[in-house]
Request: fold
Amino acid sequence: MASVSFSQVKKAFGATPVLHGISLDISDGEFMVLVGPSGCGKSTLLRMLAGLEDITAGSISIDARVVNDLDSKDRDIAMVFQSYALYPHMTVGENMGFSLKLRKDRKDIIEKRVAQAAKILNLDPYLHRYPRELSGGQRQRVAMGRAIVRDPKVFLFDEPLSNLDAKLRVAMRAEIKALHQRLKTTTVYVTHDQVEAMTMADRIAVMNDGRIEQLGEPLELYDRPANLFVAQFIGSPAMNVIDGVLRKSSSCVEALGHRWPIGALQRGSEGQAVRYGVRPEHIAIGGQGAVTAEVVVVEPMGAETELVVKVGDVTLVVTTHGRSDAKPGEAIALAPDAASVHLFDAASGQRL
Amino acid sequence: MKKKYLNEAFLLLMAVPILLWSLLPIYHIFLFSISSKDSAFSGALWPKEPTLRNFGHIAKQEHFYLYHFWVQIWNSLWIAVAVGALTLAVASCAAFAISRLKVRGGRTVMNLALFTYFIPAAFLAIPMYKAMGNYGLLNNRWSLVLAMVTLAAPYAIWVLKQASDKLPWELDEAARIDGATPLQLFRLVYLPLMTPSMVAIGTYALLLAWNEYLYGYLLLSHERTITLAVALGHFIAADDSPWELLMATGLVYALPPAAIYYAFRRYMVSGLTSGAVKA
Amino acid sequence: MAPLPPARRRMSTWQTWGLILIAPYVLVFLAFVLYPVGYGLWLARHPESYVKLFNDPIFFRTVVNTLIFIIVAVNLKFLLALWLSGFFTHDRVWIRWVSVLFLLPWAVPSIPTIFSIRFMFNPEWGVINSVIFRLTALDGPNWLNDPHIGLSLAMLTHIWKSLPFWTLILISGRLAIPKELYEAASVDGATAWQKFKYVTWPSIRTLYLTSTILSMIWTLGDFNSVYLLTGGGPADLTHVLATLGIRYIRLDQVDLAMATIVCAMPFVLPLVYFMMKSLSKSDEKSS
Reply:
């Protein structure tokens, strides 16, 4: 149980900078998710915390103690790898107990701790099997068991569910979250999947190009994205974004020949070029809709219906509850919910 | 249909000269071993009275050139095993350092090692002989052991490095996080996973040393230090040597490699050619 | 917190161990490759050795023998290996057994086998001449006492011994060719020869060439095939550079021995150069 702190952490591979001064504080017991597209630096940051990569500048602390110069084994951390990294020549039990064996702990202690971890993860029947005899999900659990046995200060997860099929991923997500609730160990979790981030995190750090775009609780990121990148990264289907001009006087944005409603605004100037963002579920259809669009595709999902519509050349996605009798080719009226609309400066992408 | 049988017949026809060519000299060794002196020199293709007496003579060291047979075969064995073990030790450490620890200059060492094979064997032997003289190791078993390790190690390192390059990196990282020191990683993770390759390489080095003639001939001279191969070479010196005893001893000498080769035949073929092709 | 200076190389323990573990081999290399080679070159520094060497009547003959050996023996060997590799890639159980037996000459040590060949060709009591006599009532030739036949037999012995290894190499080269290429060729109506010319040969050509060059380098060092068969005789007429060097050592003429080796360098170095070129070309192609 410990806090983790990154202070102005920079990383460069040779002359190529990869991380541009990351500062992040993770409190004791928190489940922090680092999420972002490939190449954003999230795995590199995690590996620097683990001690697998050198730190070019800045400092990383675990429990208020700077660990820059500490070897991995002295940082009291445990890591779960994307490819599980189980020792093929050892049984499940031996894999899980390996770290204790290296420390020359007593055999009975090792057995006890391994049995405890195996119980939590339902691995009891597999203790004497070899990794090659197990399925992907079971192997991932062994990898987690190996981490649990160590009873570390921090758990590190490096895209652990990427190698599993979709259904298993959903089940494992819940297991990892339940584990965290039970053990309450500080966890740093890296993924490129925003669904995992949203469902599992206490807080999310959205990363892009070596920087943190926004740090906050999942719903905070969803409801108030700080910039265009976060707005379009979080949420599925993604937020609709249209280029337009701000008309403060008429409380709308002119775009695509229509006037799109907006809510109360503090910033922004008349005539400013903006990006108008509205999530698919915040667009009502029919009635007094301000915008007319043409239906392109109707995708009935059962509980909801996704409509792909076109306004001019721009394609938008609208999600409605229940069924819809819209047909492709029909004209349809769109009524975006002004209170749930997001405006971003067209040049900087920052929220207005 | 007829074409198929013709093809088979053609293949079978090709097999005959291949087998004759390959086996004739070996059969000839066998032939001499079980012949008496007169029968051997009569040029017969099968002895009139096959006998095992020659082997008895060898075992009892009953001839001038065989006086030290048991010591000599022991030398061959000792040296072969020492070469196998030492090559394994040196090569596995070096391969681990180059492949897993990514030691600085590792690739250079690897390439330099392989350059050893660009020096034709007989040409390296001569300066090696002088060098061993300077080291004071002539007529010492260790000179042959070290010379053979020098010749076997580059290939051994290369094979072990290729095999260990296939191990995923995450294993080392997981072990590091689990708290392993470099030695623990080497002992508890690397070596167990390398065992099949190491068995192949150890056998290769052992056979290389057992079969060696030239280096033994140069580096060892005393009857009680030479290997069986060198002792066999001495037989040729005189014209009236008992060739049948020579061949019988040769057969004994050839049996271990043939047996090991037969036991490992499948691995030998694949292990040898694993690196030969760059697909 | 104020930013700290860049982290030290925490990897130092690991790098240290890397150096420690690679040290044994490096020592072996320094002591038993670098030092001998350097010392040998130093011993071969006197021009008088070379004068003496060139004046030795057998030297010129030896050089010619060596050239014949590496040009004729190696290429003949590889043509055979090419042909046999095709034979052994047929998928039959009995062919696999034949290949096991075919590899025996390579697996079994040289001393008994080459002596065996030597005795087979003994003019008085060897089996070859006995069989010839029994079939034709004529005396067979005095095989090993004729320098030309002797050298030829040494080359055959060399081929006998090393053919299996190189055949294996070429077999693995053939096996790397995807079957579909041959199937496509069949569909296109190719004959067996055309399949070889357009599918097999382009794929293994580089392997064939680099192997030939490497084999030439190794054949330069083949001491056993000549020494154990003819001993360099008759009258030192079948020596090759490898056996000649050893002969000088036995006569305690170290300077001449080293000079012989240096004289072999003009053969070895171009071969090494061509090998490296060929290897890097194949590197380019595959990358």
